Amino acid sequence: MIKAIQSFDEYTRAYAASIADPEKYWDDQAAQFIWKKKWDKTLEWNFSDPDVKWFIGGKLNITENILDRHATKTPDKVAIHWESNNPDEAGKDITYKQLYEQVCVFAGVLKQKGIKKGDRVCIYMPMIPELAIAVLACARIGAIHSVIFAGFSASAVADRVNDAKAVAVLTSDGSFRGTKSIAVKALIDEALQQCETVKTVLVAKRTGDAVAMKDGRDYWWDEAIAGATPVYEAEEMDSEDPLFILYTSGSTGKPKGVVHTIGGYMVYTAFSFANVFQYNEGDVYFCTADIGWITGHSYLVYGPLLQGATQVMFEGIPTYPDAGRFWSIIDKYAVTHFYTAPTAIRSLMSFGDTMVEKYSLKSLKVLGSVGEPINEEAWHWFNEHIGKKNCPIVDTWWQTETGGILISPLASITPLVPSYATLPLPGVQPVLVDANGTVLEGNNVEGNLCMKFPWPSIIRTTYGDHERCKQTYFSTYPNLYFTGDGCKRDEKGYYRIMGRVDDVINVSGHRFGTAEIESAINEQADVIESAVVGYPHEVKGQGIYAYVICDKTDKNEDQLRKEILDSIVKLIGPIAKPDKIQIVTGLPKTRSGKIMRRILRKVAEGDLNNLGDTSTLLDPEIVEEIKKGAL
Length: 631
Ligand code: PRX
Fold this sequence. Notes:
By secondary structure, the chain is α/β, with parallel strands linked by helices. It folds into two domains: 440 residues, ANL, N-terminal domain (Rossmann fold, 3-Layer(aba) Sandwich), CATH 3.40.50.12780; 122 residues, GMP Synthetase, Chain A, domain 3, CATH 3.30.300.30. Helices cover 31% and strands 24% of the residues. Strand 1 and strand 2 form a beta hairpin. The site of adenosine-5'-monophosphate-propyl ester (PRX) has 22 residues, from helix 10, strand 20, strand 24 and strand 25.
């Protein structure tokens, strides 16, 4: 287990040591874990192929560091307080011993179904304990899990299952979200009509709704575990074997499968969890993210459990039965560490302070924010109303590709500045570069955020397409990992993330590529062409604004908009629905045919008088039309 840094002085020394001799620094951290065989070499890397390997030759199973370790040392300690969607339904407290047993039993089910080391298993489930168990059981037998957020459509699921060539899908009959009950298994059935590689589907019971079960493919979870022989022996894995694939959107093409490998990911998620949150014995940690996103992987499943923490896992939504739900959960479990997204803070702020005042929140010690820049208003509200000005807020900057938090205050150690992610963690070497790729030295500079040296949980590849990994992250600037974010370094050397500089939109902390949404819009039969941009949105951070050119049709605009939304819901899911759809007759293009998104962004922002130079456009008239019709 990782021992956290205790003071700012110690952080400064640790940071310096980690830069002077990274291998020694990470050797010492990695030595805190259970390995079946120690690594022979700490690091080999280049950012040109790219090829990064950590703890080379080391053999381990990550779940031994979670289950065997803590089930032996603290068997009766609660690992997960599971809180149901409905506050009147009893939750479940799962101890480390029980988690160990349940994972070993389910690992036995996976083995019995013929799933082997290296096979890909897709998981599409609500936030029920079986989801965490499923993830860990895959890791136990060496299968590569690919969790798909259970808000994606059947078509999006099929794309991901096919890309990963998954042999199995783990799912549930249905799910509860607020007052809604959602048919999860039916969606999987629809998705799997397009997938040939899946041989086994295991279905956990949650809603009890009737579902179709396909003979020879589909099995009930509870029946399968009843007849299973537990697998207590954890599969021996190589440090660089893949642990999981997680699909994420980029500025071009379909979502890509980010691959993380076992050794480095284990060391870095535990390390960053311990240091950023400063979790101590007896604390109760609550991360509101869904396991379908990277935050749920690194700071719900892996980081906290590696460190033997007690945490809350919540099935429901922040506004059910009312907008005080998070606060009631905090009081119920005496939560000390609360980690959420700015979009949730802004949304809950809008319900008024009375929703908060009913609760004491006195157990809280540390607050965390993740997923998007936190604006000052939300920061102050979080600080005053939730933290009662007594809890540091760790504004944690990172990405699916980074595996763990790279820039963040360490709670109660790093001096805070609202809306600043502050300083890099030990081992993290950020650089800012200008548009020409020149590294900006010194402080008080702003540029594109890159990393010049690998940390243990850096992305290794994009599944099945290494060239795409190289092009996306390692080609914009030679020998640097490019994050896609703009960033400022102030006079004190503190980092402030300014948002994406590419065609990625961050809606409520969820990433979408504009091209991905455009291609879903273009599937509607009347659409000729579309362009999507992000614009500032009070609650979601960014909203989605779509400009769409349609063929001549008898349909009115409302009908067209409805059909366009339907197409997006079908191909991606409701989370990618544009907030605004403007039907236009043309798009502002340069003579070479490139869409001038800058102009579209300005119109979407409502900044109609600052469109800049439009003289190079093929048809400047179109800008006037778009301005007139702006929503
Ligand atoms: O733009 C940054 C933003 O979210 C992007 C990464 O998205 P994703 O891979 O989905 O991971 C989200 C959870 C780690 C980044 O490129 N982002 C994330 N955290 C912050 C942030 N922007 C500003 N401040 C943050 N703390």
